[in-house]
Write a structure and sequence with these properties.
The protein is an alpha/beta fold. 37% of the residues lie in helices and 19% in strands. The chain is built from 13 helices and 13 strands. The strands form 3 sheets. It has a 6-stranded mixed β-sheet, with helices on both faces. A 4-stranded parallel β-sheet has the order 2-1-3-4, sandwiched between helices.
Length: 427
């Protein structure tokens, strides 16, 4: 994913701290550096400016822009990355003074997504977000957008020599939106099949690099039918994976459930990206339970928790049961974790890496799933043996006996199956 070392762009970070800001600027700049690393750049230095308000023309003011130009000359900087979103005029004005490629936080994140998306739908979603972002900024981008290949801020539409004809871009946006609607229809069909299976759905949500994929892998490893091919990609990097995954896992009572990973969140997540990925993110709406995964070792975890909750609020899913999982406890002492309990009332502390407390997490999932379970004894006629296979495949059967008039099994089943197969219930 990372480019060859000689092609890595030497980067200067620029951040602005306003009096009204609630996010710690140092932590925000650290995250920006991680994003640059994830995109294949190399941070040489950073500049933080304190201001009362943003300069409409230059964001940081003309004098500061000239000062940054000197830094770039002294440090042989290739790229300047701003920690906030810039307007087209600000981009054009800053590039005119600094004479370097300028990328803002939004374009940086979009570039990472463009490099990481692997599915057809994921690529379309990213391209749509890039086009929506660039449409009002076409005159703000210099000729680096039209070169073939390229690195940070140039993947996607830039590789196709993006024209300044707004009508061309609008037509492209319209074509992608139509293609995504077709993909949405296919996703709806798959979703209906899942709903017909009566299996509860658990969705992992949270900040990027909090360990969602690691937890998913560990949970499915506890399944008797686990195989290595079911594992999802894990890498210690922001936005290591973008595509969602759906896997089958098993509760302590033997009931199967579906567990899905989702796109990771990040502070100042671009509006264009949230909008473009809404179709995928809306999978969360159909989940029975949300697992909010938090990196317990992150010093900014309280802000990350609130960032996630804001996005969940936007998706209108805060009415669902939520378990907050403080992950990576192998890296931190529990006494050093500071968070607002309002956002983590139903919580557990685990280590996905060491599998610590994962059995207790499964107990919590079983307890918090809205479906009720009832202990029953069923007698299945011999001409309905396909039902026996269904129960054996989806539940932990306490015992099974073959009687003269049918197969008798004892197990705990969910409310849906209880009503569906009530004719076979002995007691």
């Amino acid at each position: 994913m990372i480019e060859e070392k000689e092609n890595i762009e030497k980067t200067l970070l620029v951040g602005v701290e306003l009096e009204k800001d609630t996010i710690d600027i140092a932590n925000s700049m650290d995250e920006l550096e991680e994003l640059v690393n994830a995109a294949g750049g190399m941070v040489i230095s950073r500049v933080i400016q304190k201001r009362y308000s943003i300069d409409a023309a230059y964001f940081i003011g003309k004098g500061k822009a000239e000062e940054i130009k000197h830094y770039c000359e002294e440090l042989d900087i290739d790229l300047v990355v701003f920690n906030d979103e810039l307007s087209g005029a600000q981009l054009r004005n800053l590039e005119g003074i600094i004479d370097r490629k300028i990328v803002d936080r939004t374009n940086l994140i979009l570039d990472i997504f463009a490099n990481r998306a692997t599915s057809k739908e994921g690529k379309l979603q990213v391209k749509l977000a890039q086009l929506r972002y660039r449409l009002p900024r076409l005159v703000g981008f210099r000729d680096y957008l039209s070169r073939e290949g390229g690195g940070i801020g140039t993947r996607g539409p830039g590789e196709q020599k993006l024209e300044t004809d707004r009508r061309h871009v609008l037509r492209e946006i319209d074509n992608i939106e139509r293609a995504l609607k077709e993909a949405e229809k296919a996703r709806d069909i798959k979703r209906k099949k899942r709903e017909n299976s009566n299996l509860p759905i658990v969705a992992l949500v949270g900040y990027t690099n909090a360990g969602k994929s690691t937890l998913l892998n560990k949970i499915i490893e506890m399944n008797d039918e686990y195989s290595e091919s079911k594992k999802v990609f894990v890498y210690d990097m922001l936005f290591a994976t973008l595509d969602t995954f759906l896997r089958t896992a098993k509760l302590p009572n033997g009931q199967k459930f579906l567990i899905t990973d989702t796109v990771g969140f990040v502070s100042k997540l671009p509006t264009h990206l949230v909008e473009a990925f809404k179709g995928t993110l809306e999978e969360v709406k159909f989940a029975d339970l949300l697992i909010h995964v938090v990196d317990a070792s992150n010093s900014d975890l309280d802000i990350q928790i609130k960032t996630t909750y804001n996005i969940l609020k936007e998706l209108e899913v805060l009415d669902k049961p939520i378990i907050t999982v403080f992950n990576k406890m192998d890296k931190v002492d529990i006494s050093n974790i500071a968070y607002d309990d309002k956002y983590a009332s139903n919580k557990i502390f685990v280590s996905g890496k060491n599998s610590t407390n994962l059995d207790k997490l499964l107990d919590m999932i079983q307890l918090n799933l809205p479906q009720e379970y009832k202990d029953v004894i069923l007698k299945i006629p011999y001409d309905k043996q396909n039902l026996v296979n269904y129960f054996l495949n989806n539940y932990e059967v306490e015992y099974i006996e073959y009687k003269v008039d049918g197969t008798e099994i004892k197990l705990s089943i969910n409310q849906v199956d209880y009503e569906k197969y009530s004719d076979y219930i002995l007691y």
